[in-house]
């Protein structure tokens, strides 16, 4: 069973490394949930929906803990019932495999907020 993207380590971009091109990131994007899209070949963007503000805040905190653990941080927009996320590698001002790993980890976390 091939390892899923979420199981990959978050390895930061090397100094001077080029951002991924659309051909290079296509395979990673295909492994992410439907919430994600690439914007301007620069960053990943997703919007996750929740039943209320409290659930959206809890997810925001989960993402924040993940970001601190991996030292790889998204921009997060918290609203009532919705969390918007943007993910890219500041060091190379573009996309790196680590951004897709983080997005896959966020999808995994979101799966725990089922519509029960
Ligand atoms: C100043 C701090 O070390 C840098 O911002 C680290 C931590 N978090 C980061 N997060 C993201 N998304 N990209 C980075 O290059 C990055 N580098």
TrEMBL record:
It comes from the Archaea. SUPFAM superfamilies: PCD-like. Residues 1-21 are annotated as: Disordered. Keywords: Lyase. GO terms for molecular function: 4-alpha-hydroxytetrahydrobiopterin dehydratase activity. Pfam families: Pterin_4a (PF01329). Its EC number is 4.2.1.96. InterPro entries: PCD_sf, Pterin-4-alpha-carb_dehyd, Pterin_deHydtase. It catalyses: (4aS,6R)-4a-hydroxy-L-erythro-5,6,7,8-tetrahydrobiopterin = (6R)-L-erythro-6,7-dihydrobiopterin + H2O. Belongs to the pterin-4-alpha-carbinolamine dehydratase family. PANTHER family: PTERIN-4-ALPHA-CARBINOLAMINE DEHYDRATASE-RELATED. This is Putative pterin-4-alpha-carbinolamine dehydratase.
């Amino acid at each position: 069973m091939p390892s899923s993207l979420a199981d990959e380590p978050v390895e930061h971009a090397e100094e001077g490394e080029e951002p991924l091109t659309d051909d290079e990131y296509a395979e990673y994007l295909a492994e992410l949930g439907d919430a994600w899209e690439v914007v301007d070949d620069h960053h990943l963007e997703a919007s996750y929906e929740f039943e209320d503000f409290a659930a959206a805040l809890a997810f925001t905190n989960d993402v924040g803990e993940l970001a601190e653990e991996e030292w790889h941080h998204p921009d997060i927009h918290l609203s009532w019932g919705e969390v918007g996320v943007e993910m890219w590698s500041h060091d190379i001002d573009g996309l790196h495999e680590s951004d897709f790993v983080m997005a896959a980890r966020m999808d995994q976390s979101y799966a725990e907020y089922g519509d029960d």
